[in-house]
């Protein structure tokens, strides 16, 4: 099993981003930040306020779900492009874009397989809870909580074990299932290290992004009222989140190289 050092990956990422920022950030802003910001502005207010504790999801136009799928595809394409730039020193942006476009179908196929697995787990859990509730309501309620927690735990575990999947896709030539197997194998024995890495970056992005949104939102409100505050705050949060994501993707590229032993 190859050794994996988060500290070493961070040092290499800082050095690489400082050297190649003129290539990385335009790609990130165009293909990651902009689609996310547009989708955020398109999100219906009733959906933005909805949470899982409510049993009924608000009615949302089909065009929004179509826009969300398109935004996710563009963001996935942008992430592959950034990884291509990080994994292949000397590659041009044009070459990285072409490589990402060629490998995008594999990434989409992987996403469909993983989504299908998770959907199957949710359906199986729902059926089990329904049957148990019909047999014994108190027992069904308790098992519903346990099974729900189990699904969440499996989802987190699978997400961490597949953390290096995107680098595998962009750096290789294998298809969907072979890429899945390879990505899963590379993280064997590194779960807790990668889990801590993701938790730390998620907290950092949330704290820094929230602070930027609050500060710039206040400035925007003073200049252009509530609408201006919401828009400027959203832009600031998107930019900060994108910067964090650039560092995260470059670190993933370095961790992938470590796992590959190259």
Automatic annotation (TrEMBL):
The keyword Membrane is assigned to this record: yes
Stretches assigned to the DUF7847 domain: 4-258
Keywords attached to this entry: Membrane, Transmembrane, Transmembrane helix
Pfam families: DUF7847 (PF25231)
Membrane-spanning ranges: 64-85, 106-135, 141-170, 191-219, 231-256
Name of the protein in question: DUF7847 domain-containing protein
Source species: Sphingobium fuliginis ATCC 27551
């Amino acid at each position: 099993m190859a050794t994996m050092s988060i500290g070493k990956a961070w040092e290499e990422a800082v050095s690489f981003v400082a050297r190649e920022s003129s290539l990385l950030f335009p790609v990130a802003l165009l293909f990651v930040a902009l689609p996310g910001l547009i989708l955020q502005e398109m999100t219906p207010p009733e959906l933005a306020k909805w949470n899982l504790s409510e049993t009924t999801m608000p009615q949302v136009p089909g065009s929004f779900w179509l826009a969300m799928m398109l935004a996710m595809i563009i963001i996935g394409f942008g992430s592959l492009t950034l990884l291509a730039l990080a994994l292949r020193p000397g590659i041009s942006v044009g070459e990285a874009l072409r490589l990402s476009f060629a490998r995008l179908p594999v990434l989409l196929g992987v996403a469909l397989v993983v989504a299908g697995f998770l959907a199957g787990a949710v359906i199986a859990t729902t059926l089990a809870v329904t049957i148990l509730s019909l047999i014994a309501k108190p027992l069904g309620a308790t098992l519903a909580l346990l099974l729900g927690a189990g699904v969440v735990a499996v989802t987190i575990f699978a997400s961490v074990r597949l953390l290096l999947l995107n680098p595998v896709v962009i750096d290789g030539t294998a298809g969907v299932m072979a890429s899945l197997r390879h990505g899963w194998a590379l993280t064997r024995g590194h779960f807790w290290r990668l889990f801590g890495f993701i938790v730390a970056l998620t907290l950092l992005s949330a704290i820094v992004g929230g602070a930027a949104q609050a500060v710039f939102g206040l400035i925007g409100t003073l200049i252009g009222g509530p609408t201006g505050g919401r828009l400027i705050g959203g832009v600031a949060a998107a930019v900060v989140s994108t910067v964090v994501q650039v560092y995260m993707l470059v670190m993933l590229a370095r961790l992938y190289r470590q796992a590959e032993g190259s």
